[in-house]
Amino acid sequence: VDSPVPMNRVLLRIKVLNLAYLTVSIPLATLLFCFATSMLFQYTVVNTTVCKVYNFCPSVSAITGISPQCYVWRMGVALHTGPRLLLASLYPRYHKTKAAHVSALRRPLFLQLTRACYGLHLVEALSLVGVTYISNRENYEVHEKIFIIFMVSSLLYMLGTCITVNMYENKTETTMEKKSKRLKMSLLALTLAASGGMLYFFYKHRIHCVELAFSWFSICEYVICFCNMAFHYTLVYDIPNEELLVGLPQAISLDKSNSTKAQ
């Protein structure tokens, strides 16, 4: 485990909890804004599909792919991506500290899973950027493929994370970590159920043009979105008191001080 670096002068100090809250609240707020304004002012546009059947709930792609909502959504995704990638880099280090609480036999698998989860997290975050900036109205085929990458990487990341947290020895877990594990497992189960529903209703809509099928597809899609956000927010239960610091390491400060005196 990396040893802590003493800081002589701290320029910036941010609680991980606050950064996680910001990272989740930005896309959540922009998604709700896009949904509300689309339903109020562009109801017919966002609920019209190629099947020309009645629908009451638009998809995420529909509400974030029209103007001016697309600009708000793109701004929200852009603002949250930097902090999200930073938070993603914390989990491998967190899991590294927990490796000692995993049995020696399963430890190599545990460490491989943590690295795989980090890679999947990066793919998920970057594919979200891709699916945001290439809308279904501009290029449906590319948008659809990137969306599939997002869904697969998101599900695999959630599954991999749930496997890793269940490899710890229970007696070493804090109350917050146990709560985080239960929440992660529940969110994974709900996401898998919603993903199954989404595939079923997409088939009903695309192949048979069943009335309301696309609305139920969209509802499943929103459930997945909210579960995804909540899953990433469980970071605050795993590392609730940690902070991110930007400052001058003490060793560098002493070297500068000594060199100044020598001159």
Automatic annotation (TrEMBL):
<keyword id="KW-0472">Membrane</keyword>
<dbReference type="InterPro" id="IPR039545">
    <property type="entry name" value="PGAP2"/>
</dbReference>
<keyword id="KW-0675">Receptor</keyword>
<protein>
    <submittedName>
        <fullName>Putative fgf receptor activating protein</fullName>
    </submittedName>
</protein>
<feature type="transmembrane region" description="Helical">
    <location>
        <begin position="185"/>
        <end position="203"/>
    </location>
</feature>
<feature type="transmembrane region" description="Helical">
    <location>
        <begin position="146"/>
        <end position="165"/>
    </location>
</feature>
<feature type="transmembrane region" description="Helical">
    <location>
        <begin position="215"/>
        <end position="235"/>
    </location>
</feature>
<feature type="domain" description="CWH43-like N-terminal">
    <location>
        <begin position="19"/>
        <end position="240"/>
    </location>
</feature>
<dbReference type="GO" id="GO:0005789">
    <property type="term" value="C:endoplasmic reticulum membrane"/>
</dbReference>
<dbReference type="Pfam" id="PF10277">
    <property type="entry name" value="Frag1"/>
</dbReference>
<feature type="transmembrane region" description="Helical">
    <location>
        <begin position="20"/>
        <end position="41"/>
    </location>
</feature>
<dbReference type="GO" id="GO:0000139">
    <property type="term" value="C:Golgi membrane"/>
</dbReference>
<dbReference type="InterPro" id="IPR019402">
    <property type="entry name" value="CWH43_N"/>
</dbReference>
<dbReference type="GO" id="GO:0006506">
    <property type="term" value="P:GPI anchor biosynthetic process"/>
</dbReference>
<keyword id="KW-0812">Transmembrane</keyword>
<keyword id="KW-1133">Transmembrane helix</keyword>
